[in-house]
Design goal:
Shape: globular
Strand content: 15-25%
Distance between the termini: 25 Å
CATH superfamily: NagB/RpiA/CoA transferase-like
Order of helices and strands: HHHEHEEEEEEEEHEEE
CATH architecture: 3-Layer(aba) Sandwich
CATH class: Alpha Beta
Helix content: 25-40%
Number of helices: 5
C-alpha cells in the first residue's frame, strides 16, 4: 500500500504543479462554487490553510466566508516528537503576516499564542481525491488524526479543496484514512454521499 500511494503521490504532485502553473489564481474561482457551504447551518468557525508550494489557495474562499460572519482559524502542526498528535486550530487572519510564522516543515501557520478553537468546517488541502470522498495527502497523517478526533467530539464538515485535475478514479485507502464530506474545485462543488 505504501508503494502504491507513493507512486500515486508522485503523479499527483506533477498534475497539481501543472494546474498551479496554468492557473495560479484558481483559488478565486472557489468562491463561486461555495454557495452550498455558505448556506450550511452552524458554520461559525472555518479552518483554512496557507497554501504550501502548489496547493490551491483557499484564502479567497476564506475571505468570502468571513464576510458572511464566519470566524477564521488556521492549523498548527504538532511539534517534533509528538507522534500521533493532531493539528490544533488558532483564530487567525490569514492575511496578517504578524500572526503567522514558518513551521519546522516550512509551512506557514498561526503563532502558538493565538486563541485555540474548534472549527465547524475544515478546508483540507490534498494531493488527490476521488468521488467517494477519499483523499491522498502528503503522508504525515495530520489531517486524518485531526478529523478523527474532531468527529469524536461533535459534527465537523471536512471539505477537500483542490484543482479539478487532482481527481482520480480511486484513491487507495487504509483503516485510519478519514473521508471528506464535500469537494470544492474551481469548476464544481458537491457533497459526498454517505
Amino acid at each position: 500500500m505504501v508503494e502504491v500511494k507513493s507512486e500515486l503521490r508522485s503523479a499527483l504532485v506533477a498534475a497539481r504543479a501543472k494546474a498551479y502553473t496554468d492557473a495560479p489564481e484558481a483559488g478565486e474561482a472557489l468562491v463561486g462554487q461555495a454557495a452550498p457551504l455558505s448556506s450550511a447551518e452552524n458554520v461559525r468557525v472555518i479552518a483554512g490553510y496557507i497554501p504550501f508550494r502548489t496547493e490551491i489557495d483557499p484564502r479567497p474562499l476564506m475571505r468570502a466566508l468571513a464576510a458572511q460572519g464566519a470566524s477564521l482559524c488556521l492549523p498548527r502542526t504538532p511539534p517534533k516528537g509528538s507522534e500521533g498528535a493532531g493539528l490544533t486550530f488558532h483564530l487567525c487572519d490569514p492575511d496578517n503576516p504578524d500572526s503567522l510564522e514558518k513551521s519546522m516543515w516550512g509551512v506557514i501557520e498561526p503563532k502558538a499564542h493565538l486563541p485555540q478553537v474548534r472549527p465547524d468546517v475544515v478546508l483540507v488541502p490534498l494531493l488527490g481525491f476521488d468521488r467517494a470522498g477519499h483523499r491522498l495527502g502528503q503522508g504525515q497523517g495530520h489531517y486524518d488524526r485531526t478529523l478523527e478526533v474532531l468527529r469524536a467530539t461533535g459534527p465537523v464538515l471536512a471539505v477537500g479543496v483542490a484543482f479539478a485535475v487532482q481527481e482520480v478514479a480511486h484513491i487507495p485507502i487504509e483503516p485510519h484514512d478519514q473521508r471528506l464530506d464535500w469537494i470544492i474545485t474551481p469548476i464544481e462543488a458537491y457533497p459526498i454521499p454517505t
